[in-house]
Structures are given as C-alpha cells and as structure tokens.
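Box 3.1. Reading complex inputs
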Amino acid sequence: MITGKRGGQDMGEAGVKDDARGAPARLGMWLFIATEAFFFVAPLLLYGAYRYRYAYDFRAAQGGLDLFIGAVNTAVLLTSSLTMALAVNAGQRGDKRLTAVLLAATIILGCVFLVNKYFEWAAKISGGIYPNSEAFSGRARGEVVFWGLYFFITGLHGLHVFIGVCLLTVMLFMRFSSASGGRYPARLENCGLYWHAVDVIWIYIFPLFYLAG
Amino acid sequence: MERKVDYKGLIIVWAGLMLLTWLSVGVSGAGLAAATRVAAALLIATLKASLVVYFFMRFRVGGEIFWVVLPVGLITLIIVTLLVFSDVGYRY
C-alpha cells in the first residue's frame, strides 16, 4: 500500500488522490450511519423485549418464514457489498468503465433483493398474514406481535435498500457525465458506505428473524 | 508511482462472509438450546459485520476521529441495550 504525500497532495491508502472534500464528507457519512444504527437498533430492541415476553409464540411464528429466501437474500446483499467495494476501488483508480460495470452489478443485485422481498411478502399477504389482518383474530398475541415487527423492520430495511439503489443509479449516470467526470471520489465512497451500512443492518435482521427459531 | 488495488483481498473477505453465512444457517439447525442458537447466530453476525466495516467500509482509512466515533456509538448502543433488558427482565 502506498501512503504519504506526493506533489503536496495526501495520497492516502493505495496511492489514491484524496480530494479536499474527502475527510469531512467521510466523517459526515459515518455520523449519519451512526444515526441509522440507532434508528434500527430501536425496533430490534423492541423485537428483543417482545421475544423475551412471548418466546414460545415467536418461535412458532418463525416457522412461517422461508429460511431459503432469507439465506439467498443474505448472499445477494453480501455479494452486492463486494461489487460496491470493488466499484469504489475502481473509481479511485480512475477506471470509469470498470466502475460503471461494478455499480451496475450492485444495482442489479439490490433489485434482486427487492424482488425476493416482494415475493416473500406476497406469499405472506396472500396467506392472510399482514398487519391488521382478520386472520390474526384467532392467533396468539405473541404471533401477532412477531408479524407486525417482521413487516415493520423488513419494510424499513427494504425502503433503505430502495433508496440505496436510487443513489447508486444517480452515481452511475454521474460517472458518465462530463460535468463531474468522477472528479470527486468521496461521493462514490460515501454511497458505498451507505450501501455497506444497509448490508450490516440485514446481517443482524437475518439471524434474529430467520435463524433464532 | 505504482498503484496497488486490493481486489483479491476483497474477494477473499467476501468468501469468508459466505462461509460465515453458511455456518450460521448450519448452527441454527444443529439442535442446540434456543438461547445458545441465538447467541451463536448473533456472534457470527457480529463477526460478519466487523469484516464488512473493516474491509469493505475501509474503517481504517480516515484518521483518529473515527476511532472515537465508532467506539462511542457502540458503547452507547450497548448501554441502551443493557438498560432495556434490565427493565424487561424486571417486568417479566
């Protein structure tokens, strides 16, 4: 790895030129990610508290989730994190074509995740499992709480994935515009940080909902 | 000046993440006690998250301030979690 100064500019890691916006922008993004962490920890703590209260009902309700789809979604999101990290690397090297290809791959994988989530939710909703469903009237209270938390937390996460896909699509088009021409690697890196944060959130959602039964 | 891009390292980390995912799915079906299953799953999740934060998010690049931001955030989360569960444990 190459570090130190070159021609008065801080080269950072791997000999990459760090623009003046880099460090403050990165700090700002990390602070935002910290707020996102608190934003998701709150409903996950709620899940933990209710799981403690309705342990049996939660385990029973978890049997209704498809572990295979959950595992596939985990693999898809982890792979999208890889392509995003590779895209940031390529972007900092100045390889526009490879950056665009890897960004496109990340966007496609994000869409695959959302499509899987759509099929998963559709199966539940068509089976009468959705917030305020009449089918819940005969079920245990703990099961109703579980499904409410499931739709809320995975829906919130899915919204974040969708926002990430939109951000990355904008970045993909900016890469090809003559206006920016990829002059500010901090922008791409910060989008990458957001995407990885969304992945880290799913890394915790997956075991809590799909594996802890 | 030669530039070195760590593509291979990122792919190795990704392979490790896939392996840990497979391990966590395997542990969940291993017939262990419920509390052990949950603890093992969360431990593996924390390991995966650490790999993503350190290698993909390149946490090590950015200066000393980041070594304040992350621990302060984590400690706050841990305190909040402990307070919630001490209250929950008292209620139920």
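In summary: Residues 1-18 of chain A have pLDDT under 50 and may be disordered.
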